[in-house]
């Protein structure tokens, strides 16, 4: 079955499980204003309610997908389709396949852990945890929506909680960072909307259903216009160079739990959307522009790594490393084969876990030292040995140490590039060599950061701080264990999406063969 075709009745279920997964956190957000809040004696009820609902939602995901999702079926499953607002063509259309399921699970896990990491939030706690719950619903809808307009509404909805979370609970320059974030992403959204509506109106019948959009043939200058609109719109969120400059500022000013969401989930929305729209809906144009995508990817990898060296703020350095690592997602998508797309998916899963772990651990020692300035820290390994162990482990995972998920994902992307015979040998060799420079730079800037923060002369003011407590230890383990499990047993992640990525690659190959046949016929 083609991954883009509507499902058979056997793939559908009577109970709306996906709607429940997507809307449960939003229901919790609606309950927040009903809870008591006293500024003098803040209540823990908002925090406890949010953690409970997000845990229940994540466990519901595990239960539903483990029982009802067929890993061998490359098409959409558990579909729900209701004609919601007919006069604008908006449908409540949800579905899950191999492209979306791993990212829904990743979103559920990291949002729950970010709420648990927000243990000490007391200022406007009802609003804070209500925004986290609303963000959880918006994220799930982005990955589950099968109607373009519903997808776009969810895409826009998730911008609001992130903006407020940075603007209210961020650092000294929080308003600047939040405004920059919303300007970049809102302007990019206009390109997404225009490109999507242009496709919906093209080719006869008007439709907003993503599966039906993929059956339309958008070629020539019109197809390129739509592809570039999607690429820039989704590329801001990924982010791609030079549309990335909002990211270091947002991470630098956001608190650690919000940074976990930014790095662990929001960046993955950009990669997912590129696969869903640019590759699935516009395969012919993707074939033409794939080399350009690879060039942008290697620029991301090297530029992000070089930019990380210039950062003396721990979170800004990790943010720049995210720009570099997301370049591998672009390489995998541009490889236009099953192995490359598989590597892109695995890199999104891996980076989501690793980056969330790094920002979380950074938040734990910031709470104790009240600084993120690398020159103002030193000797923390002796007073924070457990924190140091977690930070070092997540850094080793980020630099793709063999045995950890980062190594498997990046080597899969490289193999996808080298096995693509559609590119010339010189192009493939050049791509591998330049991308390898980023791999060499990554351990240098990460391990040098570890050395400067945790070793060297001890700062007297930081000599008596406490190490990670059991709650923080549990959160860290929930993020690092999956990276080790995937590193040693990658099939546990690959099996979730392999059928869908293989079908997507076959669709690209079939369209390429059709284009060749058409060219020969004309000749």
Q: Keywords for this structure?
A:
single chain; two-stranded antiparallel sheet; 2 strands
What's the topology here?
Layout lengths: L16 H15 L13 H24 L8 E9 L4 E7 L4 H17 L7 H20 L3 H10 L1 H11 L4 H28 L8 H4 L6 H18 L8 H8 L2 H24 L3 H27 L4 H21 L3 H32 L10 H4 L1 H14 L6 H14 L6 H30 L15 H19 L2 H32 L1
Antiparallel strand pairs: 1-2
Helix pairs in contact: 1-2, 1-4, 2-3, 2-4, 3-4, 3-11, 3-14, 3-19, 4-5, 4-6, 5-7, 6-7, 7-9, 7-10, 9-11, 10-13, 11-13, 11-14, 12-13, 12-18, 12-20, 13-14, 13-17, 13-18, 14-16, 14-17, 14-19, 14-20, 16-18, 16-19, 17-19
Structure description:
The protein is built from 20 helices and two strands. It is globular, with a radius of gyration of 22 Å. α6 (about 160-170) packs antiparallel against α7 (about 175-200), α16 (about 385-400) runs antiparallel to α18 (about 425-455) and α17 runs parallel beside α19 (about 470-490). With about 525 residues, it is mainly α. The chain has one domain (about 15-520). Mean pLDDT is about 90; it is low at about 1-10 and about 515-523.
């Amino acid at each position: 079955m083609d991954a883009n075709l509507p499902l058979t009745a056997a793939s559908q279920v009577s109970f709306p499980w996906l709607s429940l997964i997507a809307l449960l956190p939003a229901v919790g957000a609606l309950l927040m204003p009903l809870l008591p809040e006293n500024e003098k004696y803040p209540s823990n009820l908002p925090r406890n309610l949010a953690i409970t609902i997000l845990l229940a939602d994540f466990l519901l995901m595990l239960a539903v997908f483990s029982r009802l999702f067929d890993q061998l079926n490359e098409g959409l499953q558990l579909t729900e389709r209701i004609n919601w607002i007919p006069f604008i063509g908006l449908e409540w259309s949800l579905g899950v396949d191999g492209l979306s399921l791993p990212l829904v699970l990743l979103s559920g896990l990291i949002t729950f852990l970010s709420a648990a990491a927000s243990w000490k939030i007391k200022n406007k706690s009802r609003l804070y945890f209500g925004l986290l719950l609303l963000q959880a619903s918006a994220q799930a809808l982005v990955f589950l929506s099968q109607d373009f307009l519903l997808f776009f509404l969810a895409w826009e909805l998730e911008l609001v909680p992130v903006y407020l979370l940075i603007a209210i609970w961020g650092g000294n320059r929080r308003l600047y960072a939040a405004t920059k974030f919303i300007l970049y992403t809102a302007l990019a959204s206009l390109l997404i909307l225009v490109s999507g509506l242009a496709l919906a109106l093209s080719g006869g019948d008007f439709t907003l259903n993503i599966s039906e959009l993929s059956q339309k043939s958008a070629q020539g200058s019109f197809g390129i216009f739509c592809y570039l609109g999607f690429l820039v719109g989704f590329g801001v969120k990924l982010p791609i160079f030079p549309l990335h400059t909002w990211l270091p500022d947002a991470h630098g000013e956001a608190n650690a739990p919000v940074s976990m969401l930014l790095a662990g989930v929001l960046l993955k929305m950009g990669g997912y959307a590129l696969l869903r729209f640019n590759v699935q809906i516009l395969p012919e144009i993707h074939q033409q522009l794939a080399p350009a995508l690879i060039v942008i990817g290697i620029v991301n990898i090297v530029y992000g790594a070089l930019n990380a060296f210039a950062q003396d703020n721990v979170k800004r350095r990790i943010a720049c490393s995210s720009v570099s690592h997301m370049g591998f997602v672009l390489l995998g998508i541009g490889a236009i084969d099953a192995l490359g797309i598989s590597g892109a998916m695995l890199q999104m899963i891996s980076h989501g876990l690793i980056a969330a772990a790094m920002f979380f651990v950074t938040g734990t020692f910031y709470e104790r030292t009240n600084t993120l300035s690398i020159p103002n820290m030193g000797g923390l390994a002796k007073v924070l040995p457990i924190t140091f162990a977690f930070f070092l482990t997540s850094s080793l995972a980020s630099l793709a140490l063999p045995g950890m998920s980062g190594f498997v994902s990046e080597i899969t992307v490289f193999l996808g590039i080298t096995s693509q015979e559609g590119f010339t040998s010189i192009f493939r060799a050049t791509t591998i060599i330049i991308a390898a420079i980023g791999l060499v730079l990554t351990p240098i800037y990460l391990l040098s950061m570890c050395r400067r923060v945790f070793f060297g002369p001890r700062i007297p003011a930081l000599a008596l701080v406490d190490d990670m407590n059991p709650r923080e230890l549990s959160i860290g383990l929930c993020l690092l264990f999956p990276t080790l499990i995937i590193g040693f047993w990658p099939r546990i992640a690959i099996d979730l999406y392999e059928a869908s990525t293989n079908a997507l690659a076959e669709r690209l190959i079939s369209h390429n063969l059709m284009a060749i046949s058409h060219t020969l016929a004309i000749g």
